[in-house]
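#random but structural
TW: two for the price of one
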Amino acid sequence: MRLTVRAAGILALAAMLVVSGCSSGGGSKPVSRGVAAKLDKETESMLERESRASFDFFWNEANREKGSKGYGLVADRAPGNPGLSSVASTGFGLSALVIGAERGWVSRKEAEERALGTMRTLLDHAAKEHGFLYHFLNLADGTRAPGSEVSVIDTAIALNGAITAGSYFGGEVQKAAEALAGQVEWPWYIDPANQQFYMGYSPENGFAGHWDFYAEQLMMYVLAAGSASHPVPGDLFYKFQRDTRPYKDGEPFIHSWFGSIFTYQFSHAWFDFRGMKDREGVDWWVNSVRASEASRAYAGDMAATYSTFGTDAWGITASDGPGGYNGLYGSPPSGFDDTAHTTDGTLAPAGALGSIVFTPEASIAALKHFAGKSELWGKYGLTDAYNEAVSPAWVGPDVIGIDKGITLLMIENYRSGLIWEMYMKSSIVQAGAKAVGLSAASR
């Protein structure tokens, strides 16, 4: 197995761990720059239900003890693994505060206070090396969770959340976001031999693996190239392998190693790639549209084998499964011969919902499908995953922060474009986009 994408990093960590239009920020309605046309009441109600419940995860499952060294850190999952925070979940949580304030689910004052406190925790207390945060932290005090690695991708997600919140709230929150970004010494995490980011680092074992294949890492190059304190060359954006293939007779696209659908979504949750191409002429937005269409087609093809799947039940992605968390869940194309992914009938609703900006009709059809299954709904909306192909049928007992996060952010971008609008205002992001060569595509 190649240590090339996030799933590989998750698996390596599991082996080490036993712990299993624009708003001004003033609370006015955003000018819609989203994807959605006018929605019918049923669809709007379903989107609101899942969005609000997903937000509640980030609001409730954070350290809310003011004065605590872990204040604002968000749990990796709930209700499992109490006391364990994920830096990525915290990054999604910072973005969630923007949505919650804008939609009036909490007051702007409450959200701003939580955002500032969270960033001060990340700045002053969270365990880090050369500005890079550890993947998992103890929720109580921000110290390193046993065996956790220093994660470049999870640091990037945390920065994305900080930048988004900084753009929205301004003032001290924005200053804190800029300070957090300024701490990250990007060149330290790059292998000078091949100009690729390492996959992971631990004090015990040093650096391991490389981001040598496409996955969710596009955000890293933009942030690193746009850094005001420790920038790296924009050319790193072109140093990973871009293997391009179709699924059956569909359109070809640059695929990730395991074909997990989240890899085509995460960077797009913040960076608005619409209408842009890179120096090699790649339209990454179109790439994710094609990947989403391929994921749906594969689920339809596999419906006869696994009863969970169908054209309205698609989006195979890294998630919990009957045997525990599985970072290999995905669909073809994968690897070099379509054998790198795993499929066992497990489906995470976040897969299809995280693609709602790319495939609105298909994703909304999937949401309607999920909405008809009462067993999937709980305190924080849809469960992380389920599998109807096993006997008895399995429904995951937990929700996972990164899955609730991609669901919440992509639904908001679909409805209003709010997260895109806030993130793209950042001078760091604008400088990074220019440095890596992202520019308006000629149509």
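TW: number two ↓
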Amino acid sequence: MMNFNISPANHHSFILTGIPGMPNKNPWMAFALGFLYTLTLLGNGTILAVIKVAQSLHEPMYYFLSILAVTDVSLSMSTLPSMLSIFWFNAPEIAFDACITQMFFIHGFGAVESGVLVSMAFDRFVAIRDPLHYTSILIPSVIGKIGIAILTRAVCVVFPVPFLIKRLPFCHSNVLSHSYCLHQDAMRLACASTRVNSLYGLITVIFILGLDALIILFSYVLILKTVLGIASKAERLKALNTCLSHICAVFLFYVPLISVTMVHRFGKHLSPAVHTLMANIYLLLPPVLNPIVYSLKTKQIRRHILIVSKRRKK
């Protein structure tokens, strides 16, 4: 493990932390990370390619899935530079401006992903509640406007974060506790009051993640109410089956997020390795597993992946 002599006056950069107790330049960790990022690109790239070439997949559900895939890749790529610099090149130092830029993209794409999951819950509600008018309600222009609204909301909410960090004086250690830059992580190193940052972070979490989770929950209450009104048991199961992939994606996003929050708030006695592991799972797991879940649970996507694979073999 490299030893850094941190000067209280050095605030032009931060030092990112790998996994406590493990040398930063670890070939096994580097291989595992490379494998995860490769899976993310291949999985989401395959989903995007299949939806593009298969005309039968040009439906609202798959357009939203495309947006989710792009968001997952973007979120994953936001952490890539710092992760590789630590575990591949043993260079954990990151410039202050680069750190707050990474911070903006990580929080921004996290907010976008939450919004996309909400829009996908709305998509499932419309498909089950009004299947005859489903494609006429969620036409491409409407989906485009929803996507723009999600992106605009994320940018507007996260835009103040870099400025709130930049105004703070840093005169303590500049060693962060993760392999990438987060607002709450950098904020704790400040030697001035961080009340405004804490309050804004709390409002953001409630407005974005809390509100989105409630909307998704309410959407599924309405979906369940609609499904229970269907006379045929087979039709009820078929309707619920179309929601399984989205439910898995919601759990993959919110369960690690809630776990990270709980560990951060109440797990101060836990090993630093636990904090690091949970934080990495929160950002790395959903982009890897989402395309796998949709490929396994969605028959149409699975069938077209096999068709495309056979064409390439020929």
